[in-house]
Design brief:
Layout lengths: L2 H8 L3 H9 L7 E2 L5 E2 L2 H13 L6 H11 L11 H49 L1
InterPro entries: DNA-bd_dom_put_sf (IPR009061), MerR-type_HTH_dom (IPR000551), MerR_fam (IPR047057)
Protein name: MerR family transcriptional regulator
GO molecular function, one term: DNA binding
C-alpha cells in the first residue's frame, strides 16, 4: 500500500511517516516503478508499535533499540542479553504508564472542579435572573 493509505490506517501524518523512514524506524518494504513508497502489513504493524511507544516518552534511540529486539529487520543490531533489555524496557513502560495515570487523575480532578464551578455559576445566574 502507498503512504496515503498507511497514513489513513494509522492516523499518522505523511510527514511523520516520512520522518520515521528518515531516522530508520520504519523503512518501506519496496518502491513502485514511479518511486512511490510501498508498505506491507508488517510495516503498518511496526508503525502502530511506534505509536504505542510515543505517549510513554521513549526517545528515538530507545525506540530503535526496542524495535531491534521485538521486531528485528535485516541489519538490526544484536544485543548480548535481549531478554534483560526487554525486561528493562517493560519495567520502564510500566513506570511511565503509572506516571501517566497519575497525571490523568489530576486532570480528571481539574475537569470535575470546572464542572462543579459551571454548576455553581449556572445556579447563581438562575437566582440572579429570577430575583
Amino acid at each position: 500500500m502507498q503512504i496515503g493509505e498507511v497514513a489513513e490506517r494509522t492516523g499518522l501524518s505523511l510527514r511523520t511517516i516520512r520522518y520515521y523512514e528518515e531516522v530508520g524506524l520504519v523503512v518501506p518494504s519496496d518502491r513502485s516503478q514511479g518511486g512511490f513508497r510501498l508498505y506491507t502489513e508488517p510495516d503498518v504493524a511496526r508503525l502502530k508499535l511506534i505509536m504505542r511507544m510515543k505517549p510513554l516518552g521513549f526517545q528515538l534511540e530507545e525506540m530503535r533499540e526496542l524495535l531491534a529486539i521485538i521486531d528485528p529487520t535485516p541489519g538490526s543490531p544484536e544485543f548480548d542479553d535481549p531478554a534483560a533489555r526487554l525486561a528493562a524496557f517493560s519495567e520502564s513502560a510500566e513506570q511511565r504508564c503509572e506516571e501517566l495515570r497519575a497525571k490523568l487523575r489530576i486532570a480528571e480532578e481539574f475537569a470535575a472542579t470546572l464542572r462543579a464551578h459551571l454548576g455553581t455559576t449556572g445556579s447563581e445566574r438562575t437566582r440572579n435572573t429570577t430575583a
